[in-house]
Amino acid sequence: MKPLNYVILILTVLFSISPVSAWNNHAGITYLILREHWKLKPPANVKVESLESFLLKEKNSLAQVLNEADSFIASKLPHCPIPSEDLKFDPIKMKADTAVPLFFKALRVNPSHKPALYKQAADVLAKKPSSLLKEITTLHELGKLTNETFLPLSVGTSVTPAEVLITAVDEPDYDLDMYLFSDSDSEFGKVYGFGEQSFGNPKYEFSSQAPFHMGFYHESSLIFTLAGFLKKTYPEYRIYQFTKLSEHAFKTGHPYWGYRFAGWALHYIQDLTQPYHSSVLPRVGAGKQIGVQLLAMIGLPGSKEKMIDYISNRHTLIEEYQYYLIKDLLFTRNKDHIVYRSLQTTPNTNSVSTFDFDSVRNVISKQAYDAAIEADYEIEQLGILKYEMVYEESHPIHKILAKLLANTSSQTRSYLDSLKVP
C-alpha cells in the first residue's frame, strides 16, 4: 500500500474522533480526587488575584521564565520552534490594557481566552445555562458547559486551593488551544509558528485543538514512518509551560495563580491518561490497518468503515458515560461505588514519583497506551453503541472506568505532590 493511502486511513480515524474531549468531566474527577487527597492536611487558603495584576507585578522576571521554557521545548520537540521575536514577552509593552493579550500571545494560546475570576461548583447541576459563560469562554458550541454551575469571584476573596484547581483543570477546553495553526483561518495561527494542523479539522472548534490534547508517543516504528505527522503533538509543551509558570507564581508570592496555572497543566496530564488520547488505533496492528485500506482500494470499504465506526464509537461512549457517571457520583456521594473508590485511592506503583518533562511521555502516556488494548476490548464486549443512561452499580462498564480513572487519580496526585508550594 502506498504511504499516502495509509496516511489517509489514519487521518480518517483521527478526523472522526478528535473533536471529542478526553475526560469530559475534569472538574468532577478532580473534585472527587481532592476530597480525599487533601482531607487530612489541606493547604492554606489563597486570595483571588487578577491575571493582569500578576503580570504587571512580575513582568520583569516573566520574560526569562517564558524564554527558557520555549528554548527547552524547542530542544526537545523539533516541531515546536521558538516563537518569533515579536511574539516574545516584552516587559516594556506590558501596560494595564495590553498585558493579558500580550501574555497569551507569548504563550501561543488563543489571545481571546478570558481569564475571568470565578469558581466552578462541580457538585451542583445547573438548572439553566450560567450567565457567566460569556465571561469565561468564546465557544459557540457550549455542549455540557450548560450543565455546569459557575460562581463569580472578586479580587481578594479567600478560596481553597482545591476550588482553584477544580475550576482551572477544565479551562484549557474552553478555547485556550483553538485555531492555533497556519490553516486555522485565524490571524494568530498564521504567526504562531506551529505550521499546518497535523490532524483533526482546523476549521472546527474542538477539533482545532486536537494536537494539543493528544499525544501519540508509543506507536510502532512502521506507523511513525508512514504517518510521521503523529509526532506533531503538543501536550508536553503546555504541561511544561504552565508548570514553570506555576512554580514562578508560587515563588514570587502569587499562590492563586500558582494553583491556577497548575490546574491548566493538570488538564493535559489527565488527557494523556485517557487511552484513546495516547493510542491511535488500539488493538489494530499496522498489518491490519494496511489490510483494511487495501480492501477499500479495490472497492471493498466495509472493513475500513466498520473499524473506524467501532473505534470512534468506543472512544465517544467511554467519555460520554464517564461524564454522566461522575455527575451522578457527585450528587449521590456513593463512596462504595467502584469508580468513586478508584478516584480516592493512593497512587499506584506506576505513578510518577518525581514529576519532570520526560515522565509525561515515558510514564503517564505510556501507562495509558499500555492500558488501551485491554480497555478497548472490554468496551467492545459491552455491546453498547452510545451513552443511554447511568447503569446499575454492578454493570461491567464501571470496572473498566475504575481501572482507567485509577491511573488518572494516581497521576493527578503525583503531579500535585510535586508542586513547589512555599
Automatic annotation (TrEMBL):
This is Phospholipase. It comes from the Bacteria. Gene3D superfamilies: P1 Nuclease. One of its GO terms (molecular function) is hydrolase activity, acting on ester bonds. InterPro entries: PLipase_C/P1_nuclease_dom_sf (IPR008947). It comes from Leptospira ognonensis. SUPFAM superfamilies: Phospholipase C/P1 nuclease (SSF48537).
